[in-house]
UniProtKB/TrEMBL annotation:
Domain Hemerythrin-like: 18-135
Name the record gives this protein: Bacteriohemerythrin
NCBIfam families tied to this protein: bact_hemeryth, hemeryth_dom
Domain of life of the organism encoding this protein: Bacteria
Length: 145
């Protein structure tokens, strides 16, 4: 049986929002996502636990920073952007909890790996393109007034 394997998350210039603080936080986020992936790939429960905690802590910090800017800049898309953040936090916390369940079968593990891949790569990349770039643009426009 082929082992479930995660594709790492790589930063590309297309993901740049044009605001340094957002981009550098996204790069840190990617690093922490890849640490979770490595831990899951080697299937080390202690490492999975610690890397998930390390990631979730930073996700909450990063979303909080973005949301502070949305409030400060009276950003009109704040409600939907925050909702998107809340969705991700719930999903990633749920995956963390499920990975931490003792004695998960190989089948369940494969499902979790697939969900993890979708959430931490597709969702995150889509969120950057569809939400964060717009936020960065709005901040830059207000700053240039
Ligand atoms: Fe965001």
């Amino acid at each position: 049986m082929k082992e479930a394997h995660l594709d790492m998350l790589w930063w590309t210039d297309e993901l740049a929002s044009g605001l340094d603080f957002i981009d550098s936080q996204h790069k840190e986020l990617f690093t922490r996502v890849n640490e979770v992936f490595s831990a899951v790939d080697i299937n080390d429960p202690a490492k999975i636990g610690s890397t998930f905690e390390y990631l979730i802590t930073y996700v909450i910090e990063h979303f909080g920073d973005e949301e502070s800017y949305m409030i400060l800049y009276m950003y009109d898309k704040f409600p939907e952007h925050r909702e998107s953040h809340n969705y991700f936090v719930l999903k990633v916390s749920d995956l963390y909890r499920r990975f931490m369940t003792e004695d998960i079968s190989e089948e369940v593990r494969k499902e979790l790996v697939t969900e993890l891949q979708l959430l931490l790569v597709e969702w995150l990349v889509n969120h950057i393109h569809n939400y964060d770039k717009k936020l960065a643009l709005a901040i830059r426009e207000k700053n240039s007034d």
